[in-house]
Amino acid sequence: MSEALVENDPGHIDPEDMAAIVAALDGIAVGAAPTREHPAEDADDWTLCLHWLQQGPVSADTEAALPLVLARVREHYALHRRTPPVRLDVHGPDGGVLLSVSAGSR
């Protein structure tokens, strides 16, 4: 069962990228699946958005591991010479931002 949905931004995320994102989340024991396609952000400083499906806050362990997820995703993009996300935002079921992780944060 998925705990999070990954916004599928076709301008920045191709199927190989999505597989890498889902694998990075799986690596911290967060089951994830892609959502339907969302309009692409035009800017190079784009944000990877997750939608948390569970009620309540993100666990402390998951929150602490999200900088590693963002780092792994950014490494994947760097290996493919593509612009990586600068931030990872986690939205709650109501659409509000539960937390945000920026590149370089620990």
TrEMBL record:
Q: Which domain of life is it from?
A: Bacteria
Q: Under which name does UniProt file this protein?
A: Uncharacterized protein
Q: Which organism is it from?
A: Streptacidiphilus cavernicola
Upper lineage is: Bacteria, Bacillati, Actinomycetota, Actinomycetes, Kitasatosporales
